Amino acid sequence: MADKSMEGLNNFTAAAEGTAVDASKKMRIGFIGCGWIAGSHIQSFLAQPDVEIVAGCDLVPGKAKAFFEKYGVEGVKTDYASHKEMIDDKSLNLDAVTICTYNRQHAEPAIYALDNGLHVLLEKPFTVTLDEAVEVMRAEKRSGKVLSIGFQPRMDENMKQIKKICESGVLGQIYYIQTGGGRRRGIPTPFGTTFIEDKTAGIGALGDIGCYSLDMVLNAIGYPKPLTVSGYKSAFFGTDPNYSGYKNGKGEEYSKLFGVDDFAAAFVRLEGGIVLDFRIAWAMNLDTPGDTIIMGTKGSLRIPSTECWNGTVGGAMKIYHECAGLQVVTEIPIIKMKEGLFDLKIRTFLDACKNGTPAPVPSSQILYNQAIIDGIAKSAEAGREIEVVIPEI
């Protein structure tokens, strides 16, 4: 006779962080956008035992079908001309969608999905403009569903350590932050021009990797509200047909299509008397625009930069402070991760949906991130400092 106490145990498996996942209750997922970043999403979704991918759509005919065939996922419905057609197909019984479109197509499908009662995982950047982010959040509020923004670096233990250090009080009162990052040659065109054309991207390095470096420090200090922004942006490299980072023979074509920023910088005043010195680059004649520095009245934290933003830190962090009247430096060892950050991003989103818990990367925080990005763009265009005004949600 079978041991009744063992029945159902095969419905559970270990999640990325060692907690039990009920695989008998599967989340039915639809993909909106089947381009490059969707590949990372699908691999992580397929690694979860409680997921069933049932549908996908893309603006390019046949792209969704080819995408799922590439990853060996069968039985996925893809005969949709738009995200609305897919979401309107009630036979799918969707629970959630993951939005992997280009930047200018983030807001519309997110709003439509939320208004139709679906949970939403939305790739970064949140949106292109602050006004779009506000409209998405209003839909989130109407729906009561989970909206999580795709900032997987949040899941890195080294990033969590930065937050712990700031919250511990060891730095004292934080008053100045320098952050950013970039690539010497790294305008993202290996898969075409989606990232560099204004009609699809809307923002360049500012939103692509700038949003990550902003989140690293803003999340660490509790996401204070931005008050004013003096911003700058340029496109000297992307608009140059001789830019060495373009594919052979593509320089002339890509430089004419380039319509976003490849460098941005800003001086941002935050609530609490904190100032933020920010710079980000897709291309520059330099190895790095500098380490991230968080300065406080009792100590300062240096976070080594990386060659290209990769979701973690570039080396052991250091705290500069005093001990018994001596100026000392404390080194914070690198924490090695066993789990993949993308897997953790997907897992925490699924857990929030299933358990009714808050989004792992809440829109209420990333709204301030988007407000700064929006403010930099507006300030750069106006040629002066501007006040950040965030509408009521």
The CATH architecture classification of the largest domain is 2-Layer Sandwich
Order of helices and strands: EEEHEHHEHEHEHEHHEHEEEEEEHHE
Dominant shape: globular
Between the first and last Cα atoms, what is the distance in angstroms?
59 Å
Look up the CATH topology of the largest domain: Dihydrodipicolinate Reductase, domain 2
Largest sheet: 9 strands, mixed
Strand content: 15-25%
Kindly state the number of beta strands: 16
Q: Helix fraction?
A: 25-40%
Number of helices: 11
What does this 3D model show about the protein?
It is a single chain. With 393 residues, the protein is an alpha/beta fold. It folds into two domains: 166 residues, NAD(P)-binding Rossmann-like Domain (Rossmann fold, 3-Layer(aba) Sandwich); 200 residues, 2-Layer Sandwich (Dihydrodipicolinate Reductase, domain 2). 30% of the residues lie in helices and 23% in strands. The chain contains eleven helices and 16 strands. The protein has a nine-stranded mixed sheet. It has a five-stranded parallel sheet with strand order 4-3-5-6-7, sandwiched between helices. It has a two-stranded antiparallel ribbon with strand order 1-2. Helix 6 packs across helix 8 and helix 8 crosses helix 11. The chain is globular, with a radius of gyration of 22 Å. 47% of the residues are buried.
Key features of this structure:
single chain, 393 residues, alpha/beta, Rossmann fold, Dihydrodipicolinate Reductase, domain 2, 2 domains, nine-stranded mixed beta sheet, five-stranded parallel beta sheet, 16 strands
